[in-house]
Amino acid sequence: MRNSRRGAVDPFIVMDVMEEARAAEAAGRSIIHMEVGQPGTAAPRGARAHLAQAMEASPLGYSVALGLPELRARIALHYHDKHGVNLSPERVIITSGSSGAFILAFTALFEAGARVGLGEPGYPSYRQILKALDVKPVGLPTSAENRFQPVPSDFAGLELDGLLVASPANPSGTMLTREAMQALIDACAESETAFISDEIYQGIEYEGEAVSALELTDECYVINSFSKYFSMTGWRIGWMVVPEEHVRLIERLAQNMFICAPHASQVAALAAFGCTEELEANLAVYTANRELMIEELPKVGLSNFAPPDGAFYIYVDVSHLTNDSRALASDILAKAGVAVTPGIDFDPERGQTTLRLSYARSTEEIREGLLRLKAYFDR
To answer: Taking the model in full, what pTM does it have?
Structure first.
């Protein structure tokens, strides 16, 4: 059978690296995982315990398409407590991970052929989801001077239908200041460009608190997830906040595309809000790992990077070593037993000379990974 043109998306390279690392481990090798953007910890204990009780008390069938009302209300309270935003729970939609939220957002906002600006380097699946929906991703090459975040001059005159930003960002870990985000929101409002803010790494912050777009405007889509700060990647549970007049549109799409987010994951997510002590202990590990990476990477020979404000990545310039980051990552895995992600995943134009290193695992694993990297580059 013939395939559709829309289906011809690029691979998500980090997933390919994960598979190579898994195969190496299956063959008996010890692999340090610095490739995957996934906490090394399980979902919070309280969330798991609450779900175990719920599974005995209820069949956990379909929920309504917009999500459990009590979870939507708890997320609205989160915005009040953390960001000072009085948010109606009616504007909160529970999704099948942030990926489900992006599919809903892009389908709701953009016609086929629309043009959506993406800062590069950036999360690769943005581009591929847009392509699969016959929407054109427009790469906006960002600069180290602007800490790899877009600024209004990057898209002036490009006639974009949408702009997607991330703060904290993947792969750089940098954040938009309040002034920088306001400038982007104002530029989009002036040109009638839809503004989407990916905030899935909020909560994992080191240099001040991240700003939510909802602090500055209601005319935006905000996407978040329980995957990162809440350590629930495989549970596939996220949320989005949309303008009030868009709720019914998103509801109709969600009913038909997903029916609902996983009910069990919604129950666990609600309980996760009560696990602050455990989650902050996870954050303390990331904080220690970040300090270790910033201190030790220059000794490895990898000194050209912007210290991350949030998330758990460091995006490293390796142009003095290679112009083929995929080959370098494969060689590091084969010879050092450390899995890292080639920058080509995040920046198709300039990523051949960069690597992303994740420090989301235990401090012992990160320390061992750095020792292995030093031995590799010394050779």
So the answer is: 0.95
